[in-house]
Specification:
By secondary structure, the chain is of the alpha+beta class. The chain is built from nine helices and twelve strands.
């Protein structure tokens, strides 16, 4: 692998956290009077955080999916040689280190820029990889799906389970079907999405006591419902074969 230029823009970029304005100015960059954006899209208006917030699937050394991270964390792992890119090309899975992916990105930026999300420095651009593989980590992925607000909203697809309407996350709450005041448990089978209006109407009662009907019986999903939403998007289709086995459960961080 070719040696890295110690004064490269990427070396300046990695150790720093990104500012709220989306630009980093290191000491060296100040001397040169330059700064650079953290991310850019080839067809959309400039958004400093767009590329860095894209999802990346992480595999362990044995190619088992263990979690989903964002591009910012993924690039940090790649640059420190703790991971490699796993890229699908003509039905084959190819591996690239940081420098190799930089070269591939240059070709993709020239010939298929709209098929990728991008992160740009002053000197070069990088396509956001969809999958990376940790080169040393070989632990098995955690089993089960965490019971948390994000996963419940995703399971119920932001629909109130009493009126059936879809709401923004900020307009939803979580409801215990059997209230805790009636010994209801905090489990997948007893918590659903509920709009504020239905939540007030139900109060500390069961749906039957409040004259409400539960649209869908709540169950524990077999894998992360947030991940299932991502798999429906074309850009993440390369994840599928790593997630088809029942024991490969992805923990979202």
């Amino acid at each position: 692998m070719a040696g890295r230029d110690p004064t490269s823009a990427w070396r300046l970029w990695v150790p720093h956290m990104f500012g709220r304005d989306g630009f980093v100015v290191s000491d060296s960059a100040r001397e040169e009077g330059s700064a650079f954006p953290t991310a850019i899209s080839t067809t959309q208006p400039f958004d400093p955080g767009a590329g860095l917030d894209c999802h990346v699937l992480i595999l362990n050394r044995n190619y088992m999916a263990i979690r989903v991270t964002n591009a910012k964390r993924a690039f940090s792992l790649l640059y420190r040689d703790l991971a490699e890119v796993v890229h699908v090309e003509d039905g084959q899975y190819l591996s690239y280190d940081f420098e190799g992916w930089r070269e591939v990105s240059a070709l993709k930026q020239r010939f298929e820029p709209d098929q990728h999300d991008w992160v740009r420095t002053i000197r070069f651009s990088l396509a956001v990889p969809r999958i990376i593989r940790l080169t040393l980590y070989d632990r098995l992925p955690a089993k089960g799906v965490r019971l948390n607000r994000r996963n419940i909203f995703a399971r119920d697809e932001n629909h109130c389970q009493y009126c059936g309407q879809r709401f923004a996350t900020s307009e939803l709450s979580l409801d215990h079907v059997v209230p805790r005041s009636q010994n209801g448990k905090t489990t997948w089978e007893n918590i659903v999405c509920c709009c504020l209006k239905c939540n007030v109407k139900k109060g500390g009662r069961t749906p039957e006591q409040a004259g409400l009907t539960l649209i869908t019986k709540p169950i524990k999903p077999r894998r992360s419902p947030v991940l299932s939403i991502q798999l429906s998007k074309t850009r993440y289709r390369s994840w599928k074969q790593f997630l088809d086995h029942a024991y490969w459960h992805v923990e979202l961080k």
